[in-house]
Batch of 3 targets.
Target 1
Amino acid sequence: MTRDTTPTGGAPRLPEVRSVDPGSVHVLYEPRATRVVLTGEIDAELGPDLLEAAEDALTSGRPLQVDAHHVTFMDSTGLAFLARLASRSRGRRVTLIRPPAVVKFLIETTNIVQLLDVVDEEPALVGEDDGPQPA
């Protein structure tokens, strides 16, 4: 059965279209850490890219950072990605940087938060001088 969306005496009403913020994942190799940058909607459509990014990041051998600042949505695919990184990081903690409320809610509800170091501020730039050196 099809519903007529034409209001009485008016032009046909167009269905509402939700703005979609496509997701992306990028792996950045920095001198002291490997940073994975997540943006947009992290869902099943991004699954193959997340698997590849996880393998790339894990094989770098460096501490792992995940910048989630620009994530607008995350489903179980994104949670599985975070859990995979944390469980395979060879004893090193994965740092989750600036996760938005939607991501915080998911990692806290599923207890994945226990596997991650969550920080709300940008860590010092990787490779930045660690301060004055003794003379």
Target 2
Amino acid sequence: MLQEERRINDGLGGHVTRWVDIRPLWAEITLPTGRISNVAEQLTAAVTAEIRVRPSSDFLAGRRIVSAGTAYLIEAALPNNNGSMTRLLCSSVVSP
């Protein structure tokens, strides 16, 4: 599922930020690589993946793809030379 973050009216005059579904999609997610880093005295695991999809103008940095309970944040969308495929370079950050 392709998602984007939106501000939604909370009914009390304020807003909340939520991930909202844009559309389902077919994708190939390659095996991720990972690293562990110490950020602000907390261990954070960062997993990176490459996701291959058919070209579309709605694959933008900052949106995310959710598959099998894992969310991948799109960092960059790179079309191939003949325009038949787009590679999405993604990251997923999980705090234990």
Target 3
Amino acid sequence: MKDKPIVIFITLIAGLTACICCIVNNAGLLVTLAVVLVTLIIFLIIGMIVNAIIAKQRAIAEKREKDEKQRLEEEEKQQRLKEEEEARQQQLTEDE
């Protein structure tokens, strides 16, 4: 998965912040461990949700880009057919 680092960074930053807060507040070891564990789990879940949202938006953008490219190719094809038809019509009028 291309977006895996997003989850990791969100979780690590949250864990670091929780550790710093516990150290500043002189929390005990067990309290610090509990706070950091809960924080890591919560932010892991948040990171996964953010990752899913980003992946979904990326898929939508890729599909939109693909559809636009296909539409442009179809328009070019229609334009070429129209030009060929006009050339045939002109050729027929010149032959007469």
